[in-house]
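Researcher: Predict the fold of HK97 gp10 family phage protein.
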Amino acid sequence: MAEFDIDYSNVEVFKNELDSLQELFPREARQVMLRSGSKARGIVARKARQLVKKVTGTYLRSIKRGKVWMDEGEESFKVRIYTGAPHGHLIEYGHRIVDKSGKELGFKEGYHVFDRAAAEVSEQWNEILEREFDRIMDKL
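Model: Structure tokens for HK97 gp10 family phage protein follow.
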């Protein structure tokens, strides 16, 4: 009969790495969402530069990534991309054009920047997350 020895040292190292990953996961998940949210913010800003023709810079600078929070109902991490500009909703949804006397001259259609960018982000979301998970696995 043939004899063989089993080396358990690699299994122990792997088990220790899995334990450390489990301890780090909440923090790493939060960081993954922060980095993914930053990439989504870049996509929204790029879409805003494409769609909005009048560029004063205030609207583009106001597009921000919010904090990551845990949604208790779904038990998942979420991040919000928003505009902090006071006129952001007017660019997004449209507004009435009014002269100084109050006479309505027409309606300016909204650009719907966030709606259009959301479709693009949802297409690229899996790819973004795969890159972030690869980054985590490279640390191990």
